[in-house]
Amino acid sequence: MTETYTIEGGPVELHRSSFDVADFPLPTGREEDWRFTPLDRLRGLLDGGPSDGRLSWTTDLPEGVELTTVGAGDPYLRSVPKPVDRVGVLTLANATDGAVVLRVPANAEPSAPAVIRLAGNGGDVVWGHVILDIGANAQVSVVIEHSGSARYAGELSVLVGDGAKLKLVSVQGWDSDAVHVQHTGVRLGKDASIASTQITLGGDLVRFVETVEYTGPGGDAEMAGLYIADAGQHQEHRLFVDHSAPKCRSNVTYKGALQGEGAHTVWVGDVLIRATAEGTDTYEMNRNLVLTDGTRADSVPNLEIETGEIVGAGHASTTGRFDDEQLFYLQARGISEEEARRLVVRGFFAELIHKIGIPDLQDRLLAAIEAELGGEPEAAISAVTEENA
């Protein structure tokens, strides 16, 4: 399947999905979906084969939540959302162990979050497929934490059954040399909801593509992201929300901060409202705070509407430096300029963090942000990873 948007300059292909690698030629960097990505830093992930590389796993699973493995070649693996780029297809082809599946049975309401911790042990290429299968009318929180060093290509397939509610938090707290490229494919059932939050702090290059598809009316997707890019880091977040069913909702809020020479962030938000999606309500926003010179923030919202029978649709994007009035207000009350800047950035991210609703994780994220602003990225990674909490 391919979706083409018409924007200034003519039609541009923005979304394709397939299980066939032939549908995704080796990118050159001129393609719309790869033009911001430094391809030379993706060695082994665009043209690699099976690898012996593995991530270390630890889990905290509440009662009733099951973790199983589905072998390669099982038809179940073709029932998930299709990959949307070459790395995703290669991930499924090269994940010779199949997929790890976290299952939450129908109507279950676990009392604590399910936590999966994935840690890299070196620079080997790792291909991994994780499936979250949330049964009808279940309510659960899932936290996935990444740490260590690896060149990790991941497919995260998220299946949310009718009437189910999932709160998903993904933390990218990698070491400074790690590369992580991932597609998170979300499929929402009738009256199902997801609140997804992406937290990206570490890594040399992190490229996330998150897609949402609706299978019935009443679906609700709340997508949020927080990222801080330091010198030389490339952090890229792309979203595609495909409104194909009536009376569904989506809301996207991503916030980022950049500091240090060569820090580069990319946010691309694509929303398609099909002719069949009457009653859609959607909004997307990206805000970037530039803390130093020598950084670059690319922000590209796209909205395509094929029906006029909607509740609302819009987008906003801003990139700028500190608000001088806020800094003046704080300094006028005896707060130093350095501390005032830290308070402004902390406030910039606070709303997203408090919405996570997991107190321990919220405290660790706030500590990590403080370390980042203090020029201690390694301390920030230590603060946000579970084993050092």
UniProtKB/TrEMBL annotation:
Domain SUF system FeS cluster assembly SufBD core, first and last residues per copy: 123-348
Pfam families noted in UniProt: SUFBD_core (PF01458)
Family: Belongs to the iron-sulfur cluster assembly SufBD family.
Protein name: Fe-S cluster assembly protein SufD
Annotated organism of origin: Kineosporia mesophila
